[in-house]
Design brief:
The protein is of the alpha+beta class. Helix content is 46%, strand content 17%. Among the domains are: 219 residues, no CATH class; 102 residues, no CATH class. α4 crosses α6 and α7 runs antiparallel to α9. The radius of gyration is 36 Å and the shape is flat.
């Protein structure tokens, strides 16, 4: 998360001190293990895998049902499964072209995954060079939150001061040789080499300017608390894994139950004979005798109720529905699906506000870069829209548009905005107008050809009549 510091205490931002860098890195490192745990849970490295038992002979199954990955993948697909749409009444094609060049759709997917897992995401905008042509362009990459942070001032505006990206450099033996530290402020990039992180000195390797006119690192928040989408459900995920693992342990213990024999004398070889012939003969005097297994009673119905309760709580806390539930059958309409996904839609409305704030900062940085090439873009009028990736019944929407348009209730521009795949309504209206004009010209051309044919036929008929009259006169 962003680290706040007093502007006067920060000193010269073009030449940061080792004390400043160490202080900020130590602040960032204090949250490292939380981020590490969230990453492990998404990867399936969950606490159940660390469970041990006192007896080595006791069953110790470790089942991981990765609800963390399910929650994140569902949120990512729901949020950015449809690409983010940018529309404006002004010409913004230069920014859209720059976004296309860096494959911004894939980048947004990666960014949303970081937001869903860590509750926070960082992207770095930097100058890159094409290997074939050597042409320089603005590129963008997501940076793991465990190795980068943003520093702001302590005012209510939290203005960005600088950002730091640090990463270890390993030798051929797999040990850390040194750390590479990159410092970004609003006009330059400083690269340092350090033997350690959080204490010690930093050796300046190079200093380069950048032309984004602001700190080229953007911090995105998943919510106000900067929490991941499954973070509050970790205890429920652990309980579910434990329950499923113990169910297997009980089954395994049931299969390997202890055989209890009462009232029998077993001699040498009787054990092998029992295993082979499945028969015991009582050689003692008549009396009570029995053979049974020592097991504990298993109430599967109670276990199933507990499992379903935990599963329901996981989906309730994360707002992500269970898509395998019978309520999500194949014949559910798109409108009915929205009501079933109401919780997820509310979650998206919160995530969307925080994401759009970062996307606007991204537009500012790209616009500042484009100004270098005299491509001025007015970003104030750009509208950013995130569309939930939901099954949509387009036929119903089109029918509603046609009925409303015929009734004259709403303008066509408003009605066309109902269609989910239309990003720029004005462009669609222009295309419709062009098609109408082309159709009119085609009709006029067709009518003109018919008129000429009709006129030529009349002339031919007149000539034929004149010729016949002359023939009659000669006769």
């Amino acid at each position: 998360m962003a680290i706040k510091i007093n502007r006067e205490m920060a000193g010269d931002l073009n030449n940061p001190s080792s004390e400043l860098l160490n202080h900020c890195i130590n602040q960032h490192q204090s949250d490292f293990w939380r981020l590490e745990k969230l990453s492990d849970y998404y990867d399936g490295k969950q606490d159940i895998l660390k469970r041990t038992k006192d007896s080595a002979a006791a069953p110790n199954n470790k089942v991981v049902v990765n609800h963390a990955k399910y929650v994140t993948d569902m949120n990512v697909g729901f949020m950015v499964g449809n690409p983010v749409a940018y529309t404006s009444s002004d010409d913004i094609q230069s920014i859209l072209d720059a976004y296309t060049k860096v494959d911004i759709v894939s980048h947004d997917t990666e960014l949303e995954k970081d937001l869903s897992v860590f509750g926070i995401g960082y992207e770095l905008i930097y100058m890159n060079q094409e290997p074939q042509t050597g042409k320089v362009f603005a590129d963008i990459k997501c940076i793991d939150p465990r190795g980068i942070f943003l520093v702001t001032d302590d005012t209510i505006d939290t203005n960005p001061l600088f950002a730091v990206h640090y990463q270890p450099v390993y030798n051929l033996q797999g040990a850390v040789d040194y750390y590479l530290v990159k410092y970004y402020n609003d006009n330059r990039v400083l690269t340092y080499r350090a033997d350690s992180i959080g204490f010690g000195n930093y050796k300046l390797i190079k200093a380069l300017p950048h032309y984004f006119k602001a700190v080229p690192v953007i911090e995105y928040r998943n919510n106000e608390e900067r929490q991941g989408d499954f973070e509050q459900a970790i205890s429920l995920i652990d309980a579910y894994n434990l329950l499923q693992s113990d169910r297997l342990n009980d089954k395994e213990a049931f299969v390997d139950a202890i055989l209890v024999i009462l009232g029998f004398d077993l001699r040498d070889g009787d054990g092998q004979r029992l295993a082979k012939e499945r028969l015991l003969i009582n050689t003692n005097a008549p009396g009570e005798s029995s053979v049974s297994y020592l097991t504990k009673t298993m109430d599967e119905s109670s276990v199933a109720i507990l499992r379903d309760s935990l599963l329901e709580d996981i989906h309730k806390v994360t707002y992500v529905p269970n898509m395998n539930d019978k309520n999500f059958s194949g014949n559910v309409s798109g409108e009915a699906m929205k009501y079933k996904l109401f919780g997820l839609l509310q979650l998206m409305s919160v995530k969307e506000r925080y994401m759009i704030k970062g996307l606007r900062q991204r537009l500012i940085l790209f616009a500042n870069y484009l100004e270098i090439g005299n491509k001025n873009v007015d970003i104030d009028g750009i509208k950013i829209k995130l569309k939930p990736n939901l099954p949509i019944n387009t036929t119903d929407i089109v029918n509603q548009i046609v009925q409303a348009h015929q009734a004259g209730i709403l303008p066509l521009k408003v009605l066309l905005s109902w269609l989910p795949d239309i990003d720029n309504v004005d462009e669609v209206l222009e295309q419709l107008q062009e098609e109408k004009e082309d159709a009119i010209k085609m009709n006029q051309k067709t009518l003109g050809v018919q008129a000429e044919d009709s006129h030529s036929n009349l002339e031919e008929d007149e000539e034929e009549s004149n010729d016949s009259g002359k023939v009659q006169e000669k006769e």
